[in-house]
C-alpha cells in the first residue's frame, strides 16, 4: 500500500514522513520510500545517501518497457503493457537494488532537484515523470509499505502524482495559510475519489487543535504532533534525537498506520485514473509535440488483474 505526505512548504511533511518510515522499520517492515520533493530532504532526515534518478528517465523506460511500441515517445503517465517489466517493493528487487539507496529496512528512491543545466529551463513536473512512470510499474501489495514525500502545496495535482497513493496524509499547522493549502487541495480534488486525511503538526496545545477544527472537521484529523524539542535538537545536529521524536509520537504514527491498514488496494481504480490522465496529457500537449496520437499506443488488453495473476 502507498501513502503520500503532503503539506504547505515548511509544514513538516518530510519530518512526519521520515518519522512514519522509522516507525515502520521499528515494526520490522521493509519500506520503499520516494523523495519526490524538489527540496530533497528525505534522505538527509533518514541519514541515508541519495542518488538522483530524474536524468535516468530514458534509461529506465528502456529497462522497464523494452518492447513497447513508440519507446521514444514516452511521458510519465504512459501506462504499462502486458510485456512491461514490473517492480516489487522489496530490497532484493533488481530495479530497487540498482536505483535505490538502502539502509537497514529502508530502500530510498530520490527523484532529484535542479542542476546547473536544468535551472531556468525545466519544470519540476517534467522531472517527476520518472516517479509517475515507476509508480505505474510498481506492484505493491496489501502488506507492503511505499511512502512518498510529495511536492509542497497542491503541486501534485498538476501531475499524475495526485493519485499515486492509496492514502494521502496532509500535514497542517495551526495557521490560516497552512490550513488554506489543505482546503484548496480538498476543493480541487473533491471529484477525484482520493482518500485524504489530516495530521496537525507542531501543536502547542488545545488552543491550536481547536483553531484547526474551526476549518477542518474532526473526522478528517487522525493525529496530532506536538511541538518537539527533539526535532529542534535533531536539526541542530543531534542525530539520536530523531529516534526520540519517533518514540515521543509513536501513538500518532500508529494511528496513521491503522488508517492505511483499513484500506483495500484498488488496481482497477488506479488504472482508470492513470489512463484518463495519460489521455488528457496526450490531447493537451504531447500528441502535438510528437506529431501523432500517442493514445493509440495503449495496450488494450492490459489490466493489473492479468499482471498480478502472472506474478502470484
Approximately how much beta-strand content do the residues carry?
5-15%
Major β-sheet annotation: 8 strands, mixed
Radius of gyration: 19 Å
How many extended strands? 8
Specify the CATH homologous superfamily. P-loop containing nucleotide triphosphate hydrolases
- Order of SSEs, N→C? EHEHHHEEHHEEHEHEHHHHH
Overall pLDDT level: 92
Shape call: globular
CATH overall fold name: Rossmann fold
Q: In what order do the strands lie side by side in the largest sheet?
A: 3-4-2-5-1-6-7-8
- Distance N to C terminus: 17 Å
Instruction: Determine the fraction of residues in helical runs and give it as a percent range.
Output: 40-55%
Going by helix content, strand content and strand pairing, the class is: alpha/beta
Class in CATH? Alpha Beta
Outline:
The chain has 312 residues and is of the alpha/beta class. Helices cover 40% and strands 14% of the residues. It has an 8-stranded mixed sheet, with helices on both faces.
How would you describe this structure to a colleague?
This protein has one domain (about 1-310): P-loop containing nucleotide triphosphate hydrolases (Rossmann fold, 3-Layer(aba) Sandwich), CATH 3.40.50. A hairpin with a 2-residue loop joins strand 3 (about 100-105) and strand 4 (about 105-110). It has about 300 residues and is of the alpha/beta class. The protein is built from 13 helices and eight strands. The protein is globular, with a radius of gyration of 19 Å. Helices cover about 40% and strands about 15% of the residues.
Amino acid at each position: 500500500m502507498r501513502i503520500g505526505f503532503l503539506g504547505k512548504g515548511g509544514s513538516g511533511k518530510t519530518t512526519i514522513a521520515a518519522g512514519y518510515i522509522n516507525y515502520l522499520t521499528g515494526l520490522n517492515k521493509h519500506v520503499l520510500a520516494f523523495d519526490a520533493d524538489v527540496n530533497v530532504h528525505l534522505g538527509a532526515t533518514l541519514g541515508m545517501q541519495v542518488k538522483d534518478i530524474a536524468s535516468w528517465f530514458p534509461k529506465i523506460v528502456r529497462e522497464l518497457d523494452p518492447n513497447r511500441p513508440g519507446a521514444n515517445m514516452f511521458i510519465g503517465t504512459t501506462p504499462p503493457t502486458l510485456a512491461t517489466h514490473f517492480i516489487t517493493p522489496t530490497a532484493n528487487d533488481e530495479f530497487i537494488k540498482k536505483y535505490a539507496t538502502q539502509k537497514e529496512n529502508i530502500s530510498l528512491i530520490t527523484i532529484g532537484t535542479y542542476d546547473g543545466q536544468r535551472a531556468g529551463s525545466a519544470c519540476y513536473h517534467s522531472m517527476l515523470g520518472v516517479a509517475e512512470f515507476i509508480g505505474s510499474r510498481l506492484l505493491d501489495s496489501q502488506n507492503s509499505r511505499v511512502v512518498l514525500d510529495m511536492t509542497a502545496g497542491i503541486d501534485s495535482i498538476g501531475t499524475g502524482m495526485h493519485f499515486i497513493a492509496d492514502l494521502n496524509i496532509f500535514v497542517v499547522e495551526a495557521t490560516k495559510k497552512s490550513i488554506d493549502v489543505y482546503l484548496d487541495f480538498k476543493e480541487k480534488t473533491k471529484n477525484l475519489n482520493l482518500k485524504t486525511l489530516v495530521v496537525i503538526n507542531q501543536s502547542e496545545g488545545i488552543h491550536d487543535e481547536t483553531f484547526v477544527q474551526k476549518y477542518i472537521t474532526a473526522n478528517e484529523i487522525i493525529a496530532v504532533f506536538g511541538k518537539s524539542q527533539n526535532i529542534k535538537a535533531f536539526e541542530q545536529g543531534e542525530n539520536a534525537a530523531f529516534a526520540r521524536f519517533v518514540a515521543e509520537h509513536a501513538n500518532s504514527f500508529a494511528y496513521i498506520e491503522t488508517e492505511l491498514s483499513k484500506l483495500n488496494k484498488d488496481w482497477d481504480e488506479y488504472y482508470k485514473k492513470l489512463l484518463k490522465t495519460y489521455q488528457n496529457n496526450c490531447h493537451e500537449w504531447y500528441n502535438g509535440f510528437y506529431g501523432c496520437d500517442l493514445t493509440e499506443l495503449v495496450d488494450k488488453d492490459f489490466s493489473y488483474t492479468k499482471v498480478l495473476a502472472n506474478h502470484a
